[in-house]
């Protein structure tokens, strides 16, 4: 049976609540009686949109008490990290659901085929959970319009999980086609979006795992983070930020030991499909790691050879990228590959000069009379911001249809 959970959301820029209505939805397979029709998933989903303007989030459906407190606490952390993000006020009826989240019998992990999520999937496979499920979401890194690409990816994932006795669920959402899609995805929105989708099917699980990004060595502010993810768990479902103890090169070493996992490796957000582009920073860095681990010739989703000239030209912009390339230099040196170490070192040197130039632009931006022209040079980065808006969500509706086309509707009670 297929189901769709939807909620109308009013995004208003006036005190009287006049604004534009949008419909947010999450859909997927399975028993519709195990879908959460309260406001709990939507509190997580809409928190980044409200926090980006520092305005009230109103939910006219009841919300799990722990999630209600969690989104407030997460917004306080965001406000300490980022300029222009403020703690939010959430107006909703708190509801005390059944206590849970203490056991680990039914564990689900979000899965995209990337290094972090593959490592987490391997840990889940080899763990003791009685029920092990990988959740893949259409509409996040693979856009909704790329249906054929997502189906190909899902078929490969399902074949692998079936081989070790795991389960898979392909869900979909239109979050990134709404006003929430204007919120910076990586730095702010994606962690809450993952949790929201997971909480929508929360009654099926005890634990939701989100694969770590920076890890404990590089805890830079990010939308999914060791400090924030666990705060979004409900009374019944624990949320874990998983794998922060392992560096990415260590995760790749684990992945290359499993031919099935290696065949799925997909790290590229730039392509927007089920394939790696092979030329972006993430693709080149991962290609280099595969080469150093002696597995590039066994990795069907990556180029057959490492382009050292392209690796040397990568702009290593962010602090976490510097960490990854520094690790790459160290691993290449230990592996007796001065050619790879040299290319990665060249990228770091070149990028250091580029970052100094960017720093000078930022200082000029704060200089009277020069700020406007310099800000225009950075318009692309600023395009991810949105205006300050109050956000109001009304009743959630669940529509389920069986194979014969008959449908049933269930709604949460409005206040």
Tell me what the structure shows.
The protein is an alpha/beta fold. 38% of the residues lie in helices and 18% in strands. The chain has 13 helices and 14 strands. It has helices at 40-51, 65-81, 115-125, 147-163, 185-200, 248-255, 259-264, 281-292, 308-312, 319-334, 338-365, 371-377, 379-382, and strands at residues 2-12, 19-29, 57-59, 63-64, 90-91, 94-95, 106-110, 131-138, 167-173, 207-211, 238-242, 391-393, 397-401, 407-411. Strands 1, 2, 3, 5, 7, 8, 9, 10, 11, 12, 13 and 14 form a 12-stranded mixed beta sheet that branches. A two-stranded parallel sheet has the order 4-6. α4 links the parallel β8 (131-138) and β9 (167-173). α1 runs parallel beside α2 and α11 packs antiparallel against α12 (371-377). It is globular. The model is unreliable at 370-389 and 411-415 (pLDDT under 50).
The number of distinct β-strands equals 14
Shape: globular
- Percent helix, as a range, is 25-40%
The protein's oligomeric status is: single chain
Beta-strand content bin:
15-25%
Largest sheet: 12 strands, mixed
Q: Ranges with pLDDT <50 over ≥5 residues? A: 370-389, 411-415
Sketch the topology as an H/E string, one letter per element: EEHEEHEEEHEHEHEEHHHHHHHHEEE
Q: Which structural class should the secondary elements be placed in?
A: alpha/beta
Distance between the termini: 30 Å
Instruction: Calculate the mean pLDDT score and round it.
Output: 87
Radius of gyration over all CA atoms, rounded: 22 Å
Continuous helix count: 13
């Amino acid at each position: 049976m297929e189901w769709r959970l939807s909620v109308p959301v009013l995004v208003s820029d006036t005190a009287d609540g006049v604004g534009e209505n949008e419909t947010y939805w999450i859909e997927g397979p399975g028993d519709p009686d195990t879908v959460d029709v309260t406001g709990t998933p939507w509190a997580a989903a809409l928190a980044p949109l409200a926090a980006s303007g520092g305005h009230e989030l109103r939910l006219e459906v009841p919300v799990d008490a722990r999630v209600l407190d969690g989104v407030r606490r997460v917004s306080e952390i965001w406000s300490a990290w980022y300029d222009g993000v403020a703690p939010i006020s959430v107006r909703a009826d708190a509801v005390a659901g059944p206590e849970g989240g203490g056991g680990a019998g039914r564990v689900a992990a979000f899965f995209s085929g990337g290094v972090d999520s593959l490592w987490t999937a391997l840990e889940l496979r080899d763990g003791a959970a009685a029920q092990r499920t990988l959740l893949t979401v259409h509409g996040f890194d693979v856009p909704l319009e790329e249906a054929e690409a997502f189906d190909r990816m899902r078929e490969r994932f399902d074949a692998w999980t079936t081989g070790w006795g795991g389960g898979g669920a392909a869900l979909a959402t239109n979050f990134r086609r709404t006003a929430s899609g204007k919120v910076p995805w990586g730095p702010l929105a994606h962690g809450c979006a993952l949790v929201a989708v997971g909480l929508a099917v929360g009654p099926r699980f005890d634990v939701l795992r989100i694969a770590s990004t920076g890890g404990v060595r590089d805890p830079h502010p990010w939308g999914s983070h060791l400090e924030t993810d666990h705060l979004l768990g409900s009374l019944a479902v624990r949320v874990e930020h998983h794998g922060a103890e392992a560096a990415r090169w260590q995760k790749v070493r684990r992945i290359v030991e499993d031919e099935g996992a290696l065949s799925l490796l997909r790290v590229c957000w730039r392509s927007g499909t089920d394939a790696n582009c092979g030329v972006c920073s993430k693709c080149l860095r991962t290609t280099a790691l595969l080469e150093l681990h002696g597995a590039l010739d066994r990795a069907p989703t990556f180029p057959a050879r490492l382009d050292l000239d392209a690796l040397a030209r990568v702009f290593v912009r962010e602090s976490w990228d510097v960490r990854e390339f520094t690790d790459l230099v160290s691993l290449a040196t230990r592996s007796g590959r001065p050619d790879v170490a040299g290319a990665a070192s060249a990228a770091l040197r070149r990028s250091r000069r580029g970052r100094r130039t960017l720093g000078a632009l930022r200082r000029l931006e704060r200089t009277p009379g020069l700020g406007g022209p310099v800000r225009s040079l950075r318009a692309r980065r600023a395009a991810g911001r949105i205006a300050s808006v109050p956000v109001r969500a009304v009743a959630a509706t669940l529509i389920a249809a069986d194979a014969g086309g008959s449908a049933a509707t269930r709604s949460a009670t409005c206040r």
